[in-house]
Amino acid sequence: MLPARLPVREAVAGIVARKASIRQERLSGIHNPWGHAIALTDPWAFLELCESDLVLKAARQVLGPDLILWDSELFAETGRYGAFLGQGREGRYWPVAPLAGAVVLLAVGRDAPVAEAVGLEEIGPGALAGLDAAEPLYVVRLMPATSRFVRDPDHPANRACMEEQVLVNYSNRPLWLLSGSDRAENDLVSGFSSAVPVWAAGVTPAEREET
């Protein structure tokens, strides 16, 4: 793993300062160095936090030893995530079979953030008790490695995600085995490279517009 080039608090502060101009969907997968977040911040700083003992210790207490990181998202304000939960959207877009997992919540604007893991079946607005609605919140989404991440775009969760969060496509997200063993033969290869632009295959943007 490459070392973080930017401290997490500094990376978070940069996003918070620009929150009015950044669409929330662009902060999905912010830990992914091969995703669109690279244009906004340093994903390696967030990936290092996802892989930290702070997150792993909290997650293991809920999910056990076999853990896969499949998504994370920064909310510039905890209140925005509270609204997301209030709409019943956490879990709606999880392409995981059987459906299981946990979110790890980190108030990353603090000097010493505390990680709290909450099982997917228990997550709700009450999980945010004790957090200031105005402070930034980092949400790490993990699944047990006994479940399978479904990359089929026609999976109901993937379809719902692409309809309701048009900038997010979970079907091509990379997965990180953070702890233990992959017991469901997940695809741990896809997603670890940038998408090849169409013109690289011999079609220019102008030609594409003409087709």
Strand order of the largest sheet: 4-3-5-1-7
Mean pLDDT over the residues: 90
The biggest beta sheet, please? 5 strands, antiparallel
Number of strands: 7
> What share of residues is helical?
25-40%
**How many distinct helices?**
6
Broad structural category: alpha+beta
Gyration radius, in Å: 17 Å
Distance between the termini: 42 Å
What are the secondary-structure elements, in order, as H or E?
A: HHHEHEEEEEHEH
Unreliable stretches (pLDDT < 50, length at least 5) are 196-211
* Structural domain count: 1
The percentage of residues in β strands lies in 15-25%
Looking at the structure, what is the overall shape? globular
Structure description:
The chain is of the alpha+beta class and 211 residues long. It has one domain (8-210). Helices cover 25% and strands 17% of the residues. The chain contains 6 helices and 7 strands. The chain has helices at 8-17, 43-50, 53-63, 78-86, 156-164, 205-210, and strands at residues 67-75, 96-97, 102-106, 115-119, 137-144, 148-149, 176-179. The chain has a 5-stranded antiparallel sheet with strand order 4-3-5-1-7. A hairpin with an 8-residue loop joins strand 3 and strand 4 (115-119). It is globular, with a radius of gyration of 17 Å. The chain starts with 7 loop residues before the first helix and ends with a helix.
